[in-house]
Design a protein that fits this description.
By secondary structure, the protein is an alpha+beta fold. It has helices at 5-14, 31-43, 70-73, 79-90, 109-117, 148-159, 175-185, 220-233, 248-256, 294-301, 322-327, 358-370, 381-386, 390-396; strands at residues 22-25, 46-50, 55-59, 92-95, 121-125, 128-132, 140-142, 164-168, 189-191, 197-201, 214-215, 237-239, 261-263, 268-270, 281-282, 306-311, 331-336, 339-344, 352-354, 376-378. The strands form six sheets. Strands 2-3-1-11 form a four-stranded mixed sheet, with helices on one face. The longest helix is centred in the middle third of the chain and has 14 residues, at 220-233. The structure holds ligand EPZ. The site of ligand EPZ has 26 residues, from helix 1, helix 5, helix 6 and helix 12.
Length: 405
């Protein structure tokens, strides 16, 4: 597997907390990483690429800006994570409302509440937000809802604050402790990352000093989607360079529907299921069933016997792709914005479909591969945001897939 988008983007953002260059390895060559590189360069970060962009050295010594370029920041949610270390370093951030996948309202009130408690003034303007602080001091902040990017952003702001910050009810996704461990090896004092309470002792504004490089975690969402792909097209696939521990709930769920997964130390092998059974899933924060694997799993359930309920609990707009799947021949009924019923099995037929977001885009590719006849997936920029050269990698597995743009 390639490096994880949602690990790479956050560690790239963390370069602003350092007084010397940091090196990030195993970087995926995807559009969101390119956009993050552009945002960092706009702020004055010098970026050196090696290995065709697989390794990045980010030097923030000359950073002078505090404005996140609107047209770029509006393309990815991770831009709001960048606001965390930027506020810590420059004491001011001007940012538009962050963009990214259109999968729900995606407010940023939890970020703003945390920055206010850390001593910042937040002004909401017609173009976005102007956040500034004379002095950042530690605070005790309970998230009203678990948020991945707010956990990362506020953890990074608190590092350069004065005193102790406690963040409660935070996210536990594996990318968070990986980032915290890297920051700790560079002089930060973060305890509890990977649990629901994180404690940070601030460095009073002293920047961190990188002593070693960071290796981006293998992409668990990509690995999980490939497992589903193998099961859906009935092909034995060995997925190498992944961390099976990060996918335990998906592996257990696949077992329930008749898909056997052989777990190695850093690999997963999936084989053709004899029968595919129905099940119900409910997406949840880590370690629950990942919302980012919900759409591919729905495609798999169109091929299972019986009725499956898919309950999307994290985002309120992440089931809109079902109309296109139904046009391909699926029988899916929307009960409410969070729940659908999938009746299977139904053969799928090739159609022209439009990728609404990164993960549903990959789900459409899986659907197209099991469908009879050709399909054309449009708006593949969305897929390119999160998956590196997906066409070439699937072609190597024997898929008949061609990039048209
Ligand atoms: C991160 O999004 C990921 N993005 C998403 O991946 C992933 O789907 C999601 O976490 C859940 O795992 C990145 O890491 C860049 P949240 P994030 O804040 O942080 C509500 C992908 O395809 N909320 O954990 O934006 C929010 O509306 C993407 O790679 C507030 O109400 O998700 C949602 O209902 C898509 N106020 C819930 O919390 C806030 O201030 C959880 O969202 C923040 C969030």
């Amino acid at each position: 597997m390639r490096g994880a988008k949602n690990s790479a983007l956050k560690v790239m953002a963390s370069s602003l907390l350092f007084k010397n260059p940091i090196t990030v390895n195993n970087v995926p060559l995807i559009e969101d990483v390119f956009r993050m590189t552009e945002l960092l360069k706009e702020l004055g970060v010098k970026v050196r690429e090696r290995g065709g962009g697989r390794s990045l050295t980010l030097d923030s010594r000359a950073v002078s800006g505090y404005v996140l370029k609107k047209d770029i920041a509006e393309q990815l949610r991770a831009s709001i994570v960048l606001a965390g270390p930027l506020l810590a370093r420059q004491k001011r951030v001007i940012s538009p409302h962050p963009g990214g996948c259109v999968i729900g309202k995606r407010p940023i009130d939890i970020f703003l509440g945390g920055w206010r408690l850390l001593g910042a003034k937040v002004r909401e303007t017609k173009n976005g937000y102007d956040v500034s602080a004379k002095h950042l001091r530690g605070c005790d902040y309970t998230f009203r809802e678990v948020s991945v990017t707010a956990t990362e952003a506020l953890m990074m702001t608190a590092i350069l604050a004065e005193g102790k910050t406690i963040l409660r009810n935070v996210a536990c996704e594996p990318e968070i402790p990986a980032l915290a461990e890297f920051l700790n090896r560079s002089g930060a004092k973060i305890k509890g990352a990977g649990t629901s309470t994180i404690e940070i002792i601030g460095t009073k504004g002293r920047l961190l000093s990188a002593k070693e490089s960071f290796k981006v975690l293998p992409d668990r969402i990509e690995a999980g989607s490939f497992l589903i792909l193998g099961a859906a097209i009935g092909k034995n696939l060995k997925i190498k360079n992944c961390n099976p521990e990060h996918l335990s709930v998906l592996i257990a769920t696949l077992g329930d529907v008749g898909v056997k997964v052989l777990v190695g130390p850093q690999s997963l092998t999936v084989s053709r299921p004899k029968n595919l059974f129905r099940t119900n899933i409910k997406t949840d924060k880590y370690p629950g069933f990942p919302t980012d694997i919900q759409a591919p799993f729905t495609v798999l359930m169109t091929q299972a016997r019986g009725q499956s309920m898919i309950f999307e609990t994290v985002f309120e707009g992440r089931l809109n792709y079902i109309e296109d799947l139904n046009r391909m021949g699926a029988n899916i009924v929307m009960c409410d914005p969070h729940r659908i019923l999938v009746h299977g099995p139904t053969p799928l037929h090739g159609r022209e479909i439009e990728s609404p977001d990164i993960r549903a885009g990959l789900a459409f590719i899986i659907a197209a591969l099991i469908a009879k006849g050709p399909s054309e997936v449009k708006n593949i920029y969305q897929i390119n945001r999160g998956y590196e050269k997906i066409d070439e990698r699937l072609e190597a597995l024997g898929a008949n897939i061609k990039r048209l743009e």
